[in-house]
Amino acid sequence: MLRSVVTVLAVAAFAGCSSDDTPEPDKNVISVDTMRAALLKAADIGPTWKDPGESAAPAELVSICGADTAAAAVPGKPSPVSATLSDEGTGGVQSLTQHALVYDDAISSATALATLRAVADACPPSVQKPAKTGDRDEPAYTETAKTTTLGQGAWNGFVTLRNKQYDKAHAATADIAVVALTRDNVLLVDQYAIYRLGKSGASANPEFSNDWQKLVGSTLSRVK
């Protein structure tokens, strides 16, 4: 009788311990829904910005080096979320392309970041291109690129900053920031670009540095 009671108590105690030891969800895993909500909408930036609508999952990201280089392929096998916004006016155009790549774990996202950083580190510092006609006409230009390490709180990665100077007969400039930042299991890739007409010779568009940092920072602040 005593032996039976002890056995029952032992089983009950074991069952209680196993129930209490049930693993909790990993709080360091960021969900696709979280990143979808974090990506900026047109209304988040300003009244002149437009949202073309839900975009398809990308097979490629953006060109990191610029000039005629192809867009970078999506590294690994993440669940991607994307949003593209634009602001078009008579004096120029602004655009924001956002890709959130949600991986299974932090190792996969870190590996993806390293893949993109290798592409960025191979960008030539300066490229000259002749005028181009056809499907997309473009005057001759010189484009420079520089990549630096970037950190924003718990997010770490890099930014490649590019500047385009068109020939004097077609006075215009373009500045592009390609940002790649990772945290936990997510890799965020943002491209902010601004094209201005009639300002050839300017090394950078006014407020460009503040603008891309503000846009990226706004997205990061929405990831809880």
Can you give a write-up of this model?
The structure is a single chain. Strand 6 (172-183) and strand 7 (186-197) form a beta hairpin. The radius of gyration is 24 Å and the shape is globular. It has one domain (30-221): Protein Transport Mog1p, Chain A, CATH 3.40.1000. With 224 residues, it is α+β, with helices and mostly antiparallel strands. Helix content is 27%, strand content 33%. The chain contains 5 helices and 7 strands; from the N terminus they run αααββαβββββα. It has a 7-stranded antiparallel beta sheet with strand order 1-2-7-6-5-4-3, with helices on both faces. The model is unreliable at 1-19 (pLDDT under 50). The relative contact order is 0.16. It comes from Winogradskya humida. This is PknH-like protein.
Give a short synopsis of this structure.
The chain has helices at 2-20, 32-38, 42-45, 106-121, 208-221, and strands at residues 79-89, 92-102, 126-129, 141-152, 155-166, 172-183, 186-197. It has 224 residues and is of the alpha+beta class.
Kindly estimate the percentage of residues that lie in beta strands according to DSSP: 25-35%
Rounded to the nearest angstrom, the distance between the terminal CA atoms is 56 Å
The name CATH uses for the topology is Protein Transport Mog1p, Chain A
Can you identify the CATH class? Alpha Beta
What is the CATH architecture descriptor? Answer: 3-Layer(aba) Sandwich
Total strand segments: 7
Helix content: 25-40%
Number of domains: 1
Shape: globular
Q: Rounded to an integer, what's the Rg over CA atoms? A: 24 Å
Q: Determine the number of helices (DSSP H or I, runs of at least 4 residues).
A: 5
The largest sheet has its strands arranged as 1-2-7-6-5-4-3
CATH superfamily: PknH-like extracellular domain
